[in-house]
Amino acid sequence: MLVTLAENINNPAGGTCAFTVRYASSSLDVAGSPRRSRVLHVSPDTLGDHVPRLYVSGIVPAPVEKVWAKIRDFNEMPSWHPNVEKSSLDTGASGAEVGAVRRLVLADGREARERLVALDDGDHTFTYELTGSPFPGLRRYIASLRLAPVTRSNHTFLEWWSEYDANAEDEAGLTQTFTGAVYESGIEALQECFKGRVDAVSERDRSH
Q: What residue ranges of the chain have pLDDT lower than 50?
């Protein structure tokens, strides 16, 4: 199941404001664990009169530790996302280093550059921003992905959300691209990746 939300957020200041790295709250029970958080400062930027905010969530049939191990490395997106062909690091010693910049080759051949601005192992969250965009009309984009355990089933609740600034005439197309080709496709791929493993365990359990 996927939940998708897109809305425009008014910017009362109408001018300069700071992008803050914040994590969406969840009503699910999350086991407490030591926080190991690394955050890179995100400088202020001019956002205009409104900021489109996108949100997609879904359930991945695997424990949160296994899903986090799959997606944590910022440079390993091609291993789980069907619309990313290749990834290489322009800067950074590894995909777990805050400040690392990855160069993605997308399924349609276009390239995007993204910088990791926050990584929190305790909260199973990372945040990144586009520094080189192949999307027309896009001026600013920052996104976060967060995992939380579903305690009853031992599955994972995955949230993926973003805010961006773009030309008004390009917003509808960008919203469709980000929610569909990026977030929904990524979550569905993770669901399929772990579905076979969960089914195999269930069959083995029923045989005993």
A: 4, 7-48, 199-208
Give the predicted TM-score (pTM) of the model. 0.75
pLDDT tens readout for residues 174-197: 999 999 999 999 999 999 999 866
- Cα–Cα distance for residue pair 180/8, rounded to 1 Å: 18
Taking the C-alpha atoms of residue 54 and residue 183, their distance in angstroms, rounded to an integer, is: 10
Cβ 23 vs Cβ 146: under 8 Å: yes
Q: 197 phi and psi, to 5 degrees?
A: -70, -40
Maximum Cα interatomic distance, the chain, rounded to a whole number of Å? 64
Let me know: does 170 contact 137? Beta carbons within 8 Å: yes
Residue recorded with tokens 């083995």: 204
CA atoms of 50 and 141, how far apart (whole Å): 13
Residues 176 and 54: beta-carbon distance below 8 Å: no
Architecture of domain 52-206 in CATH?
Answer: 2-Layer Sandwich (3.30)
